[in-house]
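Sequence in, structure out.
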Amino acid sequence: MHDVADADDGGMLDLGWGLVMVNPRATRELCHQAPHPIADLTTEALAVSAFQATESRCLMIAGSHRDTGTILASCQGLLAADVAHNDATMFQAATEALAGSDAGAGLLVLQWHGMADTTCPLVDVYITEGLTTTPPPLSPAWTLASTIATIEPVWRTGVAGAGLCSLNGTRDVQLRLLNGVDQASVCTTAATTSSGRALHLELAPAFREPAAWISILAGAWPSDAGAGSVDAGSVDAGSVDAGLDQAPTGEPTPPRFLRVGCQLTAEGVSAATFLLVLWAFTRRPRRRS
């Protein structure tokens, strides 16, 4: 699902609602979110590449730069275009549909962010589950951290709880929701426990190369179809738009990505998003046991 209206033919979308894609033939129950495209440089391309190459379940990309405009959201007082801190967005509505659906219960959301080299100088990659505390053993955060240590041992990877970085995602409204905070309270109420359904990933500039992350994700969460490896070179990470409607070359059973354009009134955003995304999740094929 993505907005397509360009009334003045100016080459820019009128609403900037963003993009939601669901793969009904996914072999990994992962959902990639890029809430700060362009601002967190290349995280949108990384999310697209990871979604395609690992045959993940879904992809969500915000529709505007986080610093677009001057209107402040009442949610947390930041610019309304910053979807990670605004509960009244298409991005949040899609996440709510995901969180509330039975079919989305087994999904792990990976939210990709970028940090400057100087922001957290002790780490190259920082992993949290939306809390400041150390994640429990066998949690997704430790699964990912241990896989990085095996595949990219020179990377300095940090996990919440050790005081290595302050970017814990505790105010992120998607992570709060996925960690069990009611949608009506996500602006003001922090999560107190991790649901194990979401990871907040902060990456220094030199550590956003899709090929490396595709190998890491394939190692951390093997394919349900039994294919433990993927062709990390089969996806063009240079353009977010390139190949969105097609699978990487060389795959024997290419997934059919659900991409639906729609135009909605402002009053109908949340309800229509919920219904469409929920339909996409609940209509996906059931696997044989």
